[in-house]
């Protein structure tokens, strides 16, 4: 089966051409059973492609090819591997527009504000990790003058990577780029809601990489994800998704005694102090809530604690700004906000909006405007919502919604707000907004989170370790340390020269 790697800027055509296929052992293949499932455009509900319903036999084929390819790959000098991975990044950079459009089509994330940006970061992540190859260094240890004692970093073997649908390109890149440079082979299981763009990425990367080293399977959790985790030749699993599924993956990995990295979401606090730069804080709240991504982000600043003295002004300004954002066709350049990914997530978000309405003392504010184009009438569009008058004990302030719904909570006492910010099962991101350096420093020390920012709300960046504490997960991604800790093991060698 062949699909051209020439640029294809019509995402509908590209989706069709990728229909029903996995990329295994250097080639496109349908699932062995021949079974498929539908891929829909969330902006219209229309079917745009199918994807293979992969099962254990498909997983076996991908892992077998990966195991064989990994042996040769690990023998290459590290810099040669790095050069090839960086080359993947450069080739992918030529496809940013194409990948952005396909991603917008299958996920409903607006092309201009989200999907094109993500495709750019994907390419950058491969270039970044490719450059780190020479840093796969060990140490010499002063153990004994007549014994040359050293450590070396070795790859773990075949890595199973399970990714979700919200930022599939970035999340795949953080896992795959690091694992490959470190000398591993990678088998990815894509999310059932977004199998197409990552498949295209895999095809493009296979122009550069040896066959079998990097494969991708589409399918569902129990039938495809679970056999990948359980496979005897998979020696490491890296997972991003829900806490519930993360625990299942962790247990299955424990049975095999293999290491796992888990990135599991959050309910990240944003603390706005009375002396904060109001305009910056308002822009930071909108960026932090990822309203342009319909709030579908693990680091979404979904609990915003605002000092009582500026609360009403802050809410009014957020409201004004989000009201001026355009919700509509994700592929339209004018669109700021696209759709929710699927009917299931759409219903889940609405169940939380209902919960917000039923929360004692809460006031609902609906923002922006629904699209009016009749073509989009079946799309999963949701007006962003703010709930004010909420307390940190309310369910709506405690559970991850993964939609454009945020809670704004008033505060007066600094110690009290830090305590409330930390009173959460999660600990992924946290931000504080103040012009008082002492308060800022104090908060950065006391906030229980993996990624704490003062007066800004940046997303994941290459070279910055990213990952949470508490129920937000285990381990870090996106940095040199993450590559060394999670995709290599350290071997100690002693050469006795006596
Ligand atoms: P999920 O955690 O069930 O799915 C993530 C990935 O895991 C998908 O590829 C899925 O097929 C796979 N998977 C599911 N069951 C599996 C199993 N038994 N073994 C191996 N792999 C399995 O998340 P889902 O259902 O897409 O979303 C539900 C909620 O999870 C969201 O509303 C959100 O709260 C949270 N979530 C968090 C994400 C994050 O970035 N941390 C990303 C996606 C979802
Ligand atoms: Mg699930």
From TrEMBL:
Coiled coil: none annotated. The keyword Oxidoreductase applies. Residues 32-493 form the Aldehyde dehydrogenase domain. It comes from the Bacteria. Keywords: Oxidoreductase. The keyword Oxidoreductase applies. Pfam families: Aldedh. The active site is at 263. Belongs to the aldehyde dehydrogenase family. PANTHER family: ALDEHYDE DEHYDROGENASE-RELATED (PTHR11699). This is Aldehyde dehydrogenase family protein. It comes from Magnetospirillum sulfuroxidans.
């Amino acid at each position: 089966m062949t699909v051209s790697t020439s640029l294809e800027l019509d995402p509908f055509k590209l989706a069709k051409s990728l229909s029903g296929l996995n990329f295994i052992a250097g080639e496109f293949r349908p699932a062995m059973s021949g079974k498929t499932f539908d891929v829909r455009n969330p902006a219209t509900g229309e079917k745009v492609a199918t994807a293979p319903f992969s099962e254990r036999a498909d997983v076996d084929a991908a892992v077998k090819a990966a195991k064989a390819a990994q042996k040769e790959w690990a023998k290459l000098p590290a810099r040669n591997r790095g050069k090839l991975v960086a080359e993947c990044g450069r080739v992918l950079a030529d496809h940013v527009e194409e990948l952005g459009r396909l991603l917008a089509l299958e996920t409903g994330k607006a092309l201009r504000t989200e999907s094109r940006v993500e495709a750019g970061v994907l390419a950058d992540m491969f270039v970044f990790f490719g450059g780190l190859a020479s840093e796969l260094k060990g140490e010499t240890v002063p153990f004994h003058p007549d014994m040359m004692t050293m450590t070396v970093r070795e790859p773990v073997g075949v890595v199973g990577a399970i990714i979700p649908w919200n930022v599939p390109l970035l999340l795949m890149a953080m896992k795959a780029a690091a694992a490959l440079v470190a000398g591993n082979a990678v088998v990815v299981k894509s999310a059932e809601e977004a199998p197409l763009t990552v498949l295209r990425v895999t095809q493009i990367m296979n122009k550069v990489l040896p066959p079998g080293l990097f494969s991708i399977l589409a399918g569902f959790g129990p039938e495809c994800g679970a056999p990948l985790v359980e496979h005897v030749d998979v020696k490491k699993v890296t997972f991003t998704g829900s806490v519930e599924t993360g625990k299942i993956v962790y247990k299955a990995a424990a049975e095999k005694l293999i290491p796992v990295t888990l990135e599991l979401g959050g309910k990240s606090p944003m603390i706005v102090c009375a002396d904060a730069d109001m305009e910056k804080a308002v822009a930071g709240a909108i960026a932090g809530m990822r309203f342009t991504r319909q709030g579908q982000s693990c680091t979404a600043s979904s609990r915003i604690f605002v000092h009582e003295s500026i609360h009403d002004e802050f809410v009014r300004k957020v409201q004004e700004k989000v009201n001026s954002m355009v919700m509509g066709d994700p592929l339209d350049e004018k669109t700021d906000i696209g759709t929710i990914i699927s009917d299931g997530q759409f219903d889940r978000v609405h169940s939380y909006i209902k919960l917000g309405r039923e929360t004692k003392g809460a006031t609902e504010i609906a923002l922006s405007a629904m699209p009016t184009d009749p073509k989009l009438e079946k799309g999963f569009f949701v007006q962003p919502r703010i709930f004010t008058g909420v307390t940190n004990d309310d369910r709506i302030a405690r559970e991850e919604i993964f939609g454009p719904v945020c809670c704004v909570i008033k505060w007066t006492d600094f110690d009290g707000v830090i305590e409330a910010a930390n009173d959460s099962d999660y600990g992924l991101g946290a931000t504080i907004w103040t012009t008082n350096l002492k308060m800022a420093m104090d908060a950065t020390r006391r906030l229980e989170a993996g990624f704490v920012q003062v007066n800004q709300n940046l997303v994941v960046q290459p070279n910055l370790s990213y990952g949470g504490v508490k129920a937000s997960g285990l381990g870090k991604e996106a940095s040199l340390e993450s590559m060394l800790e999670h995709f290599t093991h350290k071997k100690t060698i002693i050469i006795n020269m006596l």
